[in-house]
Design a protein that fits this description.
By secondary structure, this protein is α+β, with helices and mostly antiparallel strands. Helices cover 31% and strands 17% of the residues. The chain has a single domain, classed as HIT family, subunit A (2-Layer Sandwich). Strands 1-2-3-5-4 form a 5-stranded antiparallel β-sheet, covered by helices on one side.
Length: 136
């Protein structure tokens, strides 16, 4: 296993405020929260990006992520939240271990996002979609 802070948490070398754990997944409160209830969900399998994760580990996260979201919303009273998952340093990933942030939106707290939408070139999009589909 890698030596990231998350690997150390999984091994029990660093304490955390656990909210969920099973054979494949660990979830705990973020120590630098953007809002009350900011929770991390990580696979126990070491992988840097989502694309490197095994189907089994990805499915395990997919099974529990909605349940943890509901629990965070119930505990915080929030009615809205963001799920954030970054892949790679250029995409602002800080800990090189797959992780999902559940960030409740409470008043002005939570995740702030700027979104500069572009325009699609439909001819180029058709080619790109075909390339992507052939690799799935």
């Amino acid at each position: 296993m890698s030596d990231t802070v998350f690997a150390k948490i999984i091994r029990g070398e660093i304490p955390c405020h656990r909210v969920y754990e099973d054979e494949h997944v660990l979830s705990f409160l973020d120590v630098g929260p953007l809002s009350t209830g900011h929770t991390l969900v990580i696979p126990k399998e070491p992988a840097v990006t989502l694309g490197e994760l095994s189907d089994e580990a990805a499915a395990a996260i997919g099974r529990v992520l909605p349940r943890i979201c509901r629990a965070v919303m119930k505990a915080t009273g929030a009615t809205a939240y963001n799920i954030l998952q970054n892949n790679g340093k250029d995409a602002h990933q800080e800990v090189m271990h797959v992780h999902f942030h559940i960030i409740p939106k409470l008043g002005s707290g939570g995740l702030g996002i700027g979104w500069k939408a572009g325009e699609i070139d439909h001819a180029e999009a058709a080619k790109l979609a075909e390339q992507i589909a052939s690799s799935v």
